[in-house]
Design a protein that fits this description.
This protein is mainly α. The chain has a single domain (2-32, 39-125), classed as Up-down Bundle (AhpD-like), CATH 1.20.1290. The protein has helices at 2-17, 19-33, 40-53, 57-69, 74-88, 90-102, and strands at 106-108, 112-115, 120-125. It is globular. The protein starts with a helix and ends with a strand. It holds the Pfam family CMD.
């Protein structure tokens, strides 16, 4: 949860310093992520792939959590992650390896999101 907490703290500080910009940015995100021609789950899977492609630990944490909340499966999340490798090659594969070995996407009885200092751990109900 550390990365998620850090992201929340950053957004809170920016909201104090730049409230108009953050409100507009948040509104844009909300509109862009809602169901449209693509469903929200597909959009979150794409965002997870992009987060891995950019190797942004904060982004991976946020978008992995969003995927879980959108009821993405472990397999869907790993396939989306592999799309970053298709576009980015070896460095992206290393990022997925770290994501999977340090904070594995685990199957458990309850969906939950946990984080260590670098990566998010996703627990998805089988």
């Amino acid at each position: 949860m550390e990365r998620l907490q850090e992201t929340g703290q950053l957004m809170g500080r920016l909201m104090q310093d730049m409230p108009d910009q953050l409100k507009e940015f948040s509104a844009f995100i909300k509109i862009a992520e809602k169901d449209g021609a693509m469903d929200a789950k597909s959009k979150h899977l794409i965002l997870l792939s992009l987060a891995i492609a950019f190797q942004c630990a904060w982004c991976i944490a946020v978008h992995a959590k969003d995927c879980v909340e959108a009821k993405a499966t472990k397999e869907e999340m790993l396939e989306a992650a592999m799309m970053a490798v298709v576009m980015g090659g070896g460095p992206k594969l290393k990022c997925i390896w770290r994501f999977c070995t340090r904070s594995w996407i685990n199957t458990s009885t309850n969906n939950s999101v946990k984080s260590d200092s670098r990566f998010t751990s996703i627990h998805i109900k089988a």
